[in-house]
Amino acid sequence: MPILGLAPSSEPTKPAHFDIEKVIRPNILALHPYRCARDDYQEGILLDANENALGHSIHSSSQIPLELHSSLDANLHRYPDPSHDEIKSRIAKLRGLPSTKHVFLGVGSDEVIDLIMRVCVAPAREKILITPPTYGMYAVCAQVNDIGIIRCNLNLSGSEGEGGEKGRFSLLVDAIKEATSADPSIKLIFLCSPGNPTGTSICLKSLRSILDYEPFKGIVVVDEAYIDFAGEDASAVSLIKDYANLCVMQTLSKSFGLAAIRLGVALAQPPLIQVLANTKAPYNISTPSAHLALAALQPDAIQTMRDKISTLLASRDKLKESLSKLAHLGVGQTIGGNDANFLVVPILNRETSAPDNVRSNKVYKTLAEEKGVDEKYVVVRYRGSEPGCEGCVRITVGSEVENEMLIKKLERVLAIM
């Protein structure tokens, strides 16, 4: 089986007895790697990766405490602090947790996803459960670790679901319980709240129901990358004190506008946090990343972050209204809960008014690859291949100017199709 993404070489292999495909594990040879937004387009108005379009909330560099600058200048030749207790302390305070023993830091949430699979799920024997449509790295990490995947789709019909949830992309609690009862090899349940690409939050009543379900002996992992956009009382962190089988993931990439520093967080009761700390790579968080995180977690920076969230939420509502005015050109109503910093909208067939993957993909490519006079490339994310997202593109809420340019260009592109 050829290595995916590697072009065959016409050069003879040296030494002749070596064949890399005989060394690499079969599940890795078969791996379809995660395709991140920047793999496709790097130029233009980038509304495809759900970054914070208003940027980070660290005030000017002169306002970062002097001791941080001095420490950074003096210590780049030294390995970083292996524990970063000050960062953990500030996160614990921000999220209402009692101590640093409830906080683990990873290189983005992706390290947490990979690490919790490696410490909990036996390769080739045990499984995880995911709820499509959802974040693609759960499945990629599972395949890399030779872990089975059980898929239990979210509610795709829009009808009332179980467990108190209603509407499209709500959690089908009873279906998850049935799946875990039928297969005791499921060790982890990954839930995304607000979901990506759904933008829908999971109600805590449903989450409690799963956590309390006695036949499931594993851990529920709730990915809260977008939680600061979802409003008060949406976070599952409030349940950590009551449930040792809960792990909440968060990040500084979204609301904090620090995607470049790759800092993810796991929040849980101390025994699980200790296991993650015992098994992580040494010195996983770099000194420059740690210094920027400390600056972002200062009170004035946190307030600025919250102010930017308010601006983005207002912009989200305005963008949703602007998209609704393009209905005559085949733009459907936004779907999902709209609880994050993005919107998911179907592009419709002009004749049938049904979601149209072909037209949607063409719109996506035209926005990113063509530009008229006084236009820029505009990059959104095609999501039509995801369950329940037929014909959809996902649009990150940009700045006011970016949103206006998106609407203007989208209107022109749709009119000529």
Write a short abstract of this structure.
This protein has 417 residues and is α/β, with parallel strands linked by helices.
CATH class group of the largest domain: Alpha Beta
Task: Determine the mean pLDDT.
Answer: 91
The profile of the biggest β sheet is:
7 strands, mixed
Q: What does the overall shape look like?
A: globular
- Backbone CA Rg: 22 Å
Low-confidence stretches: none
CATH topology of the largest domain: Aspartate Aminotransferase, domain 2
- Percent of residues in β-strands: 5-15%
Second CATH tier, the architecture of the largest domain: 3-Layer(aba) Sandwich
How many structurally independent domains? 2
> Which strand order spans the largest sheet, edge to edge or round the barrel?
2-8-7-6-5-3-4
Q: Termini separation (Å)? A: 41 Å
Order of helices and strands: HEHHEHEHEHEHEEEHHHEHEEEH
Which structural category do the helix and sheet elements fall into?
Answer: alpha/beta
What's the total count of β strands?
12
Please give the share of residues in helix. 25-40%
Number of helices: 12
CATH homologous superfamily of the largest domain, by name? Type I PLP-dependent aspartate aminotransferase-like (Major domain)
